[in-house]
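Hi P.,

Sorry for the delay on this. The queue was packed all week, but I finally got your sequence through. Input first:
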Amino acid sequence: SLITVVGIFWILLPTLSFILFLFISAFHFGQSQLFRINVPNVLQLPYHLSWGALLLSIIILTNLSECLSIFTSLEWLNTAWVTRSNLLLATVVSLLTFLAIHTFLLLSKHLKGRYFMFEIGLLSVFTIMSLTTNAIFTFTVYFGLWHSYRSLILEYNTIKVKATYGLSAFLKDVSPYSILGTAFLLLAYGLSSYFDLGISFYMIFIIIISTLTVPHLIVMHNLYTR
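Then the structure:
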C-alpha cells in the first residue's frame, strides 16, 4: 500500500515527491550511519539529517551536469531549484550543522575520539571519490556496498536470537524479500522501456527505489530506535 501511494505521488506531484525522497533518504542515510552514537533526542533529527544531506549534496554538487542530465530526463519534473548556488548552500549548512553537533558530542563525552575521526574520514573518502570519479560510481559504492552492508549487519544481529543461527539461515530468511524487490525493479524497468517513456535508466531507478524506500525506512527506523 505504501509503494502504491508513493507511485501515485510521483505521477501527480513529481517535484514534491523528488524533494521528499531526497529529504527522507538524507535522514535515513544519516540514521543508518550514526544510530549507534548516544545522541540527545533533541539533536537526533538535525544530526542524522545533516550527515545524509551533506553526503547527497556533495555528490550532486561535484557532478552537477551528470545529475541534471539524469533528473531532467523526467520532463514533468521541475529541476529549476537544482542550482550550483542552492547546492553549495545546502552543503555548507549541512557541514556546519554536522560539525557543530559532532563536536558537541565529542566534548560532552557522548562520542569517543576515534569515532569522531572515523566519521570525518568517511565523509572525506566519499568526497574525494565523488571529485575523482562520478556520481553514479560514488553513489553505487556508498548505497550498494557501505549502506547495504551496515543495514544487513543490523538485520542479522536483530534476527539472530539463537547462537546456532548462521549466515545460511539468514540468507534463506531474507531471500524472499530480495527476490521480490529485484523482480519489482526488473518489472518496472521493463514496463518503462516497453512504453518508451524516454526517461533515463538512472531516473527510473531513483523513482523505483523511492517507492521501496518508504516501507524500508519505517521498518529500519524501528530497528535503529531500539
